[in-house]
Amino acid sequence: MAAPELISPRSQRVAAARRLARRNFRGKERRFLAEGPQAVREAVGHRSDGEPTLIELFATVEAAERYEGIVAEARAEGARVHLAADSVIDELSQTVTPQGLVGVCRFLDRPFDEILQARPKLVAVLAHVRDPGNAGTVLRCADAAGADAIVLTDASVDVYNPKSVRASVGSLFHLPLAVGVPVEQVVAGLKGAGVRIVAADGAGLRDLDTELDEGVLGRPTAWIFGNEAWGLPEETRALADEVVRVPLHGKAESLNLATAAAVCLYASARAQRASGGCRSVTQS
Fold first, then answer.
1. What integer is the mean pLDDT of 59-71?
2. In degrees rounded to 5, what are phi and psi of residue 3?
3. Is residue 14 classed as helix, strand or coil in its secondary structure?
4. Rounded mean pLDDT of the chain?
5. Is 116 within 8 Å of 185 (Cβ atoms)?
6. Which terminal residue of the chain has fewer beta carbons within 10 Å of its beta carbon, N or C?
7. Is 132 helix (H, G, I), strand (E, B) or coil?
């Protein structure tokens, strides 16, 4: 068994990676931390602006043996791989029980115009979403539903927050992503690209069942999702072509953001795939 080469959490290399837990340093260096085997596996082989997304990988000796294939591929792709003491991984990790792998990655976001040029049919827009765990979970839902892109407005949380990255469970590396775009610019751009704008809000006069019954969700659609506690402000709802609520057929007071987003995105995905049926992950 090899010995770890990085044994001090106070070393310069560890300190440089650790400061990426702070948003201002992430923005300055355009790098973020991806923790755990699933996130690192997705980062390996991914490219950003033509360069390998994974720049550096810290791994405990145990994790390097358990995930030998991931570590070998990271080296083959040119990432600097460091065997590190458990205390080093503990310093870099944002979880109670670290899994022994932490990667340093390049930012993934693209200019908003590139998303428009791709003529998307299904887009998730996060406006005023402040909880990083919710942002990552909605991103995962959008990925699972087959969305073409996700956009976080300038009023939303940093998608590179470690909690958001972890909650996305690797989906952050799958979808075209734009960040920091004013909601007015998002709506104007998507409308110009022929995309119908639907705001998901409990105050909506129409419900999701009506949208499905009338067949309008088969059109290119962007769903705008708002704040976890107070939804979407009136001025944002006014930008949408329609404000739609998820019907509550039982006694529940409401749905949380991620659940409502999953319901809405899958409704659109099903409508858009109605002629050919949905792709199943169990199919080869």
1. 96
2. -95, 145
3. helix
4. 92
5. no
6. C
7. helix
